[in-house]
Amino acid sequence: MAMNIFLEFIIGQDRAKKILKISFERDRTGHAYLFRGPAGVGKKTLAMSFAAYINCLSPSSGDVCGFCSSCRKFTSGNHPDLIYVEPQGAAIKINQIRELKKDITFPPFEARYRVILIPDIHSTMRRKEVANSLLKILEEPPEQTVFILTGDEAGDILPTILSRCQIIPFYSLNYGELALELQKDGVEQETAATLAAVAEGSLGRARKFLKEDLLSFRRKIVEQLLHLSPDHPDSVEAIFELAEETAGMKEDVDELLDLLSIWIRDVILAGKGLGGQVISRDVLDLLPSAVQRWSIEALTRHISSIATARKQLQSNCTRTLVCEVLFFDML
After folding, report:
1. Which of 24, 27, 191, 222 is deepest in the core (most CB within 10 A)?
2. Which CATH number describes the domain made up of 212-329?
3. Distance CA 76, CA 1 (A)
4. Is 34 helix (H, G, I), strand (E, B) or coil?
């Protein structure tokens, strides 16, 4: 699948792009970089673009040409001097690092720099022996080889690896820029603005919300909770069905709980007359009913119930049961 390799088309991260461009233009490209920042803000995309840029045969105006043989291979994802180390299962294994050591014994096939991309090391490099094996390579890196590691800002990364890399900081994207990018994908303006805000400036997270249709499912939950009565016998069956459907979201349940927490925050703000600060524009029409239905105290308890549910889900409790208890608490 074709990918974007142009630096100018990457939204935001101007500081990171400037640092990388200057290092290359001054012939000071580092042997190891750590792109660190929030998830979904373009770390892997910029890593691929930078790999293409430092190997472009005819770079122009601080960017790739997009037409040379090297650029075409990076665009297709088939450049022989790009090594992408993906985890086997949930983590990178020691045999992968050993194989990497063999691969980089020889010079690049055709590129100016061989680029080794190791994404998400905060979660994929779990075993100390794997990290130590990688550390030995970083301590004595081969010539014409550039390592690019990516990691979340809150992730746990060994200090020894941090000390061997030049850290390139990444930041959350501007909400306005992010909303415009989503609108280019055909997202309606109001929905795009909501996604940008609830995703906290993460394009990757916003696109995940969109792909899994989480905003629509949140609306369904909110509407059900608003219309169900704790004293009505039909409410029990309705909650069971809603809980089962929610549990079926599996790994997306945590994101859904985030969206519910944001909505409750918005209801509290609206109840205090601060409707202008509401960010869940997609359920704006439901706010008056929610303000009338629940007191500030009740909404505060809802937030606490969501926090409890999140902890229980992390402890591998039965998803359906956790969701049932949560929704009954929120009636």
Report:
1. 222
2. 1.20.272
3. 6
4. strand
Q: CATH 3.40.50.300 occupies which residues in the chain?
A: 7-169
pLDDT digits (tens, 9 = 90+) for 196-218: 999 999 999 999 999 999 999 99
CATH 1.20.272 residue window(s) in the chain? 212-329
Per residue in 150-206, pLDDT (tens digit) is: 998 777 788 888 999 999 999 999 999 999 999 998 999 989 999 999 999 999 999
Residue with tokens 């109840």: 271
What are the beta bridge partners of residue 145? 114
CA dist 185 and 192 (Å) reads 10
Give this prediction's pTM.
0.85
CATH 3.40.190.10 fits 7-169, yes or no: no
Cα of 2 vs its chain's centroid, Å: 21
> 40: left (phi > 0), else alpha (psi -120 to 50), else beta?
left
Q: Which helix (H) or strand (E) holds 192?
A: helix 189-198
